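MODEL INPUT / OUTPUT PAIR
PAIR INDEX: 1
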Amino acid sequence: MNYAEFLIWVRGDAFHWSLAIFIFGVTLRLLEIILIGRKANLAEKRGSGVAGGIRTIFTRFMPNQAVLPRVMHTLVAGYVFHIGFFIVLLFFAPHVALFEAAFGFGWPALPNGVIDFATIMAILGLIAVLINRLRNPVQRMLTGFGDWVAWFVTLLPLVTGFMAFHHLVEPYPLMLALHILSVELLLIVFPFTKLMHTFTLFLARYYTGENAGHRGVEI
């Protein structure tokens, strides 16, 4: 298989299989959460569970002031990564064109210089998170194999995409194919690692806040 055939396979069969695994995995994980159900809250109602749930979704974007100094490094690195990653994902011109082809509508793309900056900041954010995890004995102990895999498959599309766009490795069709393949690897791994928090984050926050609000506790 030459480079052109490899690129065609990556854009075709490999993409369809990885997308199918992603959709199946995410659906399965969400069904697990829904089917497990929730125990009835038998505590005396002392407040609004709905208000507590909604409030907690937004208040958890920042940690408690008492612990903020101890997690500032992780907080800043995490926000830098997430903001940079989603800027690249949603506003890089080829990505916008892909979304437009898939959904029938698009939006204005950002200049390539902005995308380059966001890519570099996202990569640096991921590296900073890794360094902090390695230096912190508690976080290092709590980190399992799946966490390292999730970190690696998240970093890979950023690095390969940057290299492909700037033609840092030739031939270009091979580098582009490797970038697309790295995205497909991310899709396959996504539902079965902590990356799934993208879909469960707000659900978990709401549940925690609703439970506390029902008891009249503000968290």
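PAIR INDEX: 2
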Amino acid sequence: MTKTNDMTIGNVGRKIALFFIPVLLTSALQQIYSFVDTLIVGQGLGDNALGAVGNMGSLMFFVFGFSMGLTNGFAVTIGQNFGASDEKALKKSVAASIRLSAIIAAILTVVSLTSLKQILILLVTPEEILNDSLKYGYVIFAGVVATIAYNLCSAVLRALGDSRTPFFAIVFSTVFNIVFDWVAVFVIHTGVEGPAMVTVLAQVISVAICMRKLRTIDIIRPSREDFAVVRATDRTLLKNGIPMAAMNSITAVGCMIVQYFINGMGVEFTSAYAVCSRYLNLFMTPAQTAGQTMSTFTSQNFGAGKIDRIKEGLRKCLVIALVSYVIFGSAMVFFPDLLAARMLQGSLQISLASGVLRRCGIMIFAVDILFVIRSCCQGMGKPLVPMASGIAEMVLRIGVIALFVPRFGINAAAFAEISAWVGALLMNTIAYFYHISRVGNGLEYRVSRKRAFHYNSN
């Protein structure tokens, strides 16, 4: 059997560090690719093309965020079974995850491709960039299957404590992405559809690398019988997967409404906001990684009934999030003009992006902490509060942007983000202390083991 990483034993700090570092490098490479992709598009095709690609961001998050939340939710169940050393349940969970993911991939592909143009029109996409947004979007959404396949493979590997294989996969795909993006734009002169094609091909490479490793892990290799539909298995997976998927998509709806207001201001504002979104995603990476680490660490230790390790792990992941804030929040507050000028050419666009970056940088600690605490709740198999917090984020984003945009313009987007982060953080913090106290008293854990017994007996 290929070695897995049991996070229920050993030094907590060392286990978290060994898992965190490869995941951080993986996420950083993904964000670096996204950053370089934006840079290549902006410098090679101009600010309008950059705006067209950036305009797709919230819609892509809606679709891909749903699939990522779904597979991450599946991974919580897989991680709990692994932590409980239940090989039979583990194989059934993996098989059912594959089957359910395939169904979701087919549905998302059809829906996204057939509704793309109408959604972009509803988002008041400027005429100058509508055609490029469509070209980019059709290619990206045609590759939904590859994206979901990678999300599932990497989520299963992380649930088993393997964060290195997804890292190696992203190393290869990132190099491929950067090299051939440059070739597509500067040599072949394809336009925005070239980088989109390269992105899909890179995902296929990542899937192949992860699949090669998964085939060597005996304890998760399902038999034909394991693929038989078992309602109890599907319910358990969907109980964790659907709320996490819905949380991401609900959050994306709020982002799409923000994009709607930004698009209504003009293409210069769309381009500036696209750059701000790129930087926010990049600078959130360490805290998001700490959250992914916390989810895996919590799910395994919750399955093993080791609650004190969950608390200790949370403290260490919060330290990572706060260090991330000090470093990247400072960059956004003190050097926003320099950051904006790296990807934008127009002085107006640079000025607009700088204002949003500075304001978000002051409060980005809220979302950094949110990633960790929310992931801990999800790892304990409590996805409903995070989903409810996603609804709160959406309401706050929409309410604040609608109320403040007439007075503050594009800076209202910064206020919308900050209010969403703070509101969601408060909800998830309350939920964490409630559930961890019940777990500590044995209430939640006894219920979870009773459910697990019923699930395995089926």
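PAIR 2 NOTE: The chain has one domain: 12-457.
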